[in-house]
């Protein structure tokens, strides 16, 4: 599969998280893409997000950006496609550990991971590989303008469930103080090992999996230049 990762003059900072737009803007239904996937690939080979018009879920793994549509199909994103919201970085594992105890659900996975983190006050990335006894995930259908708020769009999500699925969870934990920019807490997308299934993780159980944790040190925000974002009053509810 072709990689979108291009050649850049300056060496990228491996410990820098790059985010496109803000979560509050996404919540307001600002779904028009501002950044191409060719641009995004300059800032990372790993990550999660969505596509212009909220046209499915995005997972980036090993430099390949995947689009998971609401019908569940997975395809490699075209470099010219754009995103209204994404988190990416270059993944380098700082710590590897095994999950060897049964974790019954996503909350237990979050609690397990939170115990491994030396501080809640930095971003972390997680790459979790294994065979998951149960995995519940979703994608979202493309929205038409005028765009609804995110909660109304997500109400039309399509939910999928898999059992004993070989997959990789791609996730981040953002600290509380990034709340005006990102969504604090854990956020996971997933892609199956055979790249046939994927989406935003709603629930998961695990009994044996490998967790790689990347400790991040800085955040770069790509501020949308479009008129909707620039004209918004973020101190007011939409
Ligand atoms: Zn998501």
UniProtKB/TrEMBL annotation:
<keyword id="KW-0456">Lyase</keyword>
<dbReference type="InterPro" id="IPR005128">
    <property type="entry name" value="Acetolactate_a_deCO2ase"/>
</dbReference>
<comment type="pathway">
    <text>Polyol metabolism; (R,R)-butane-2,3-diol biosynthesis; (R,R)-butane-2,3-diol from pyruvate: step 2/3.</text>
</comment>
<dbReference type="Pfam" id="PF03306">
    <property type="entry name" value="AAL_decarboxy"/>
</dbReference>
<comment type="similarity">
    <text>Belongs to the alpha-acetolactate decarboxylase family.</text>
</comment>
<dbReference type="GO" id="GO:0047605">
    <property type="term" value="F:acetolactate decarboxylase activity"/>
</dbReference>
<protein>
    <recommendedName>
        <fullName>Alpha-acetolactate decarboxylase</fullName>
        <ecNumber>4.1.1.5</ecNumber>
    </recommendedName>
</protein>
<keyword id="KW-0005">Acetoin biosynthesis</keyword>
<keyword id="KW-0210">Decarboxylase</keyword>
<dbReference type="GO" id="GO:0045151">
    <property type="term" value="P:acetoin biosynthetic process"/>
</dbReference>
């Amino acid at each position: 599969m072709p990689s979108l990762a291009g050649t850049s003059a300056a060496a990228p900072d491996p410990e820098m998280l790059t985010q496109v737009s803000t979560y509050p803007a996404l919540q307001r239904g600002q779904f028009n893409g501002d950044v191409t996937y060719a641009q995004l690939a300059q800032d990372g080979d790993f990550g999660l997000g969505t596509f212009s018009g909220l046209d499915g879920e995005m997972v980036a793994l090993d430099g390949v950006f995947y689009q998971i549509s609401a019908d569940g199909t997975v395809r490699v994103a075209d470099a010219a496609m754009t995103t209204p919201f994404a988190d990416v970085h270059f993944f380098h594992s700082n710590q590897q550990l095994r999950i060897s105890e049964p974790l019954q659900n996503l909350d237990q996975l979050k609690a397990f991971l939170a115990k491994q983190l030396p501080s809640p006050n930095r971003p972390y990335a997680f790459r979790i590989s294994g065979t998951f006894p149960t995995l519940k995930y979703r994608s979202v259908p493309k929205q038409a303008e005028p765009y609804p708020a995110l909660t109304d769009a997500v109400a039309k999500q399509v939910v999928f469930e898999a059992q004993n699925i070989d997959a990789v969870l791609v996730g981040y934990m953002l600290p509380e103080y990034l709340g005006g920019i990102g969504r604090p807490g854990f956020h996971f997308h997933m892609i199956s090992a055979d790249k046939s299934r994927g989406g935003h993780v709603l629930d998961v159980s695990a009994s044996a999996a490998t967790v790689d944790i990347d400790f991040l040190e800085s955040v770069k925000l790509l501020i949308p230049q479009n008129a909707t974002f620039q004209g918004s009053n973020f101190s007011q509810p939409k």
